Amino acid sequence: MKAIALNATLKSGPDRSKSSTGHMLDLIAAAMKKEDVDCEILTLADYDIWPGVTSGEGDGDEWPMIREKILAADILILGTPIWLGQPSSVCKRALERMDAFLGETDDRGRMPTYGRVAAVAAVGNEDGAHHVSAELYQALNDVGFSLAPNAIAYWVGEAMKSTDFIDLPETPKKVQSTIDMMVANALHLARLLARDPYPGSR
Amino acid sequence: MKAIALNATLKSGPDRSKSSTGHMLDLIAAAMKKEDVDCEILTLADYDIWPGVTSGEGDGDEWPMIREKILAADILILGTPIWLGQPSSVCKRALERMDAFLGETDDRGRMPTYGRVAAVAAVGNEDGAHHVSAELYQALNDVGFSLAPNAIAYWVGEAMKSTDFIDLPETPKKVQSTIDMMVANALHLARLLARDPYPGSR
Amino acid sequence: MKAIALNATLKSGPDRSKSSTGHMLDLIAAAMKKEDVDCEILTLADYDIWPGVTSGEGDGDEWPMIREKILAADILILGTPIWLGQPSSVCKRALERMDAFLGETDDRGRMPTYGRVAAVAAVGNEDGAHHVSAELYQALNDVGFSLAPNAIAYWVGEAMKSTDFIDLPETPKKVQSTIDMMVANALHLARLLARDPYPGSR
Amino acid sequence: MKAIALNATLKSGPDRSKSSTGHMLDLIAAAMKKEDVDCEILTLADYDIWPGVTSGEGDGDEWPMIREKILAADILILGTPIWLGQPSSVCKRALERMDAFLGETDDRGRMPTYGRVAAVAAVGNEDGAHHVSAELYQALNDVGFSLAPNAIAYWVGEAMKSTDFIDLPETPKKVQSTIDMMVANALHLARLLARDPYPGSR
To answer: What is the CATH number of domain A2-195?
Structure first.
């Protein structure tokens, strides 16, 4: 079992160490580690991902490398900050590029993502996690991923407040148990699908 | 100037006094009172609103009375609790019935709602206010309402917590100033549109 | 394997035979039949489902019977018409009642829905299927269901048109193959999870 | 009266002439021309807009110039293609940068956008326009824009089809009348607000 986590923070370079989304992904990776599953974390803003809906947009476009890593993993964690109650533009860019999977089906109608499990991490100062998961579940499911129950780990503060998740003195217990459950479910589902792939149709 | 507020809480009868959404609407009505505008609050679950997309679904359907009140007011406040990060079924029922406005245009293509201003109140234990406003803005705008800036007053607690807005020791300052601004903007816009109605088209 | 399909049309009684959503659910049930899986279809508007977020709201509330059927099935198909680009109030009512599953976990943190697979059917005159699936995926996943890839069968017409799906001379080929794939994926996943249930956490 | 239209197509350079979103914006600009209002169209992908939530992210960031144009106009048309039923990453990038308006209020609590009117153009092969408008209405309203009724012009084809709007032999009559109404309403509202600005609060 192998997992890849994509951090869709707007921050790049050294600033990414201040990413609350990155902090949530670290917690998820740690929970996976406990289950002996390696989870690589990749900060999307560090790469030059061109706008488009194909798997390769040209020379210099770094999406193909990320695409390879997604397909080499059993589990994809898509982590995004919440701005204006919505997923980030960096997150949307990655989803758009995954749109290409829709046209890459085999003779049984299966996309290359079939059999892979997706989950979501969403972090913001206040409000928006459920909507973010709704949009991401739909997009990820449309492009072939399976979802185990409770496929989101999230934190947002009280309405109109500005605390950052990364600055909390400790991880709230309920957040930690949500992470643990998300990881347990995703791993279980990924193992089942690795052993018994979807047969496809037609 | 006259306002009508619809409380889409799932609670009916005396239970409605425990509605956090109702509490938010009371605060909004109080802010309007200060501006000498009367705001009637109506709890939708107290009425028998039939499923459907017409203005009158039959004998016993109580929507026509509510519809009259909406059209007699200059401002509509649609208040809803948040469940699973989404507006309530009671709120959706009211929006569905307003779908009928789409077919009730005059010879200049204007719905009976044209010139009226809408705003949203959303309250929940945690998360969902931005998504609720997104869905309500879209539905209300589709059926002819105008929206002043910052057309939502909301409160939600920290992620995965269960505090009720109605049980807060006092209204957070930022929530009160949001209510005041929402009311000021909605009143200003409603006054402009009462004086200078949309001319319509064709 | 057993499936239950809930039709969240606004129509009840004999009118329900004119439901385009019902027509889509018939096609899905037929595809399941081919795989020797029985799919019962139940029209929600025929029942008195009280507003609320518990599993039983009182004497006369017919949700408990529907809840039983959901938990007795391996697969839940939630079918909804699209009004104003959104799921119906009848659909939202059912989701609200499923909110109760969140509090009915066992000592491993698992809801009674764990191990069950959900899918969505969405039908409208124009636009809204993706948003409907986003909201339904999120709500259904939040309350414990798993999602196989391409968990939606849908049809909507061209923008601003008014054709009903039930009146199409024949089912578009692409729609039929989408139904077939949705059914194949959901069945495969439900079989895996029936054999190997989620272990839960803590 | 002056309008600015932002085209959030993923296409840049000469390819942008094949943008269906651009075609819709041309139709909107033509409708404005008839009312003697000038509408400049700007293709966002032609500019280097850095990720971030401030008004200026550094040397080379071209957002400040676009921000100036938005604030110099009375009406903002935000046009986006629909991918996976959602607005484009390019559109989200622009909205994120407008998040900065939230912190740029005057002593009456008014953002620099107050008094400006926004509208949406959404174009796709199939499905998603209502959701796109929901997300854009919410984000644009959050950052201070007003919305006249029917603030969207859109086109999407039948479910699972792949026709491009730009390739239609002619503009459907209903689409044209929707454009005309959107323009008439937006202009009327912008004129009222230019004459009578929001007074703000406290």
So the answer is: 3.40.50.360
